[in-house]
Amino acid sequence: MPTDLERIYGQLGFADRILYSNFVTSLDGVATLASEPSAGSVISGRNQADRFLMGLLRACADAVLLGAGTLRATPGHHWTPEHIFPEMAAGFSELRMKLGRKPHPRLMLVTASGHIEMSHPAVQGGATIVTSEQGATELQGRLPASCDVIEVGKSGAVDMTRALSELRSRGYEVLLTEGGPHLTGDLIKHGLLDEAFITISPVVAGRDHEVRLGMVAGAELLPARRLWSGLLSARRHGDFLFLRYGLRRS
Ligand SMILES: NC(=O)c1ccc[n+]([C@@H]2O[C@H](COP(=O)([O-])OP(=O)(O)OC[C@H]3O[C@@H](n4cnc5c(N)ncnc54)[C@H](OP(=O)(O)O)[C@@H]3O)[C@@H](O)[C@H]2O)c1
Question: 35 partner at 20 to 30 Å CA-CA among 14, 20, 71, 205?
Fold first, then answer.
């Protein structure tokens, strides 16, 4: 780690092949707000320490994996370290160089429908769309030249085990997923997520008529499947907690 980054976070390192996630949740476990774009920013209150961590985790990764729902919910965003925390852009790029990463993490978008907004700046900037043969047909002729497609299966949900092997065969070994809950649920259900970074914001979000998801959706584990995780680190900045868990695939 460059010293200016290590001074803020302490030491951070990853296995050579890993998939880790990053989420912010409210004190009562809410990660999405249907009525608000960029729910994460609202839940964290644009907390600077959380934004720094997002940048740092992006800076370590070969690629950032997202479900299409998160792209749709976050207009105008770029999933790069310098976009979320520009003040440390130089440190992030030094870190990438030291780790032997390309200048920017590649954005990987997972979609079954192929309904991707081509005018989104992150798509214009270059992304790999991970979809089925049917999803690829939907995208045909619409994708900017900066994008490419990985086809997995004929139609419907992408088998993420196969998708990850495809990514790895293309040299993407250290992968960050920034969700959202449906993609995360799918990854956890199939035992593919190695580590989870969770920021607990001190805000209370509440739940009533609007659907408000936690970190995982579309997968029910307890009581049948007891997936206990192990706490790898806990950090505090003001009233925020920054937790890192290793997921044991029991
Ligand atoms: N608090 C946080 O830290 C945080 C982080 C990330 C996201 N979010 C929030 O999460 C909300 C979105 O939630 P979400 O669960 O809908 O997000 P999501 O998982 O990113 O998106 C769901 C969509 O991703 C695609 N997808 C996911 N798994 C797939 C698979 N195995 N195969 C094919 N396609 C797959 C599908 O796209 P198609 O519909 O195109 O088929 C699906 O409808 C937003 O409000 C966002 O702000 C919060």
Answer: 20
Pocket-testing residue among 182, 188, 190, ligand 1, by greatest number of atoms within 8 A of Cβ:
182
Task: Give the DSSP H/E element, type plus range, for residue 176.
Answer: strand 174-177
Picking from 21, 57, 83, the residue whose alpha carbon sits closest to that of residue 214 is: 21
Tens of pLDDT, residue by residue over 100-154, are 999 999 999 999 999 999 999 999 999 999 999 999 999 999 999 999 999 999 9
Classify domain 14-247 at the CATH superfamily level.
Dihydrofolate Reductase, subunit A (3.40.430.10)
**Rounded distance from Cα 74 to ligand 1 centre (Å):** 11
pTM of the model: 0.97
Closest ligand 1 atom to Cα of 179 = 6
* Structural domain spans, the chain: 14-247
Task: Give the Å distance between the CA of 187 and the centre of ligand 1.
Answer: 12
- Whether the per-residue pLDDT at 239 is higher than 60: the answer is yes
In the reported structure, the alpha carbon of residue 217 is separated from the centroid of ligand 1 by a whole-number distance in angstroms of: 9
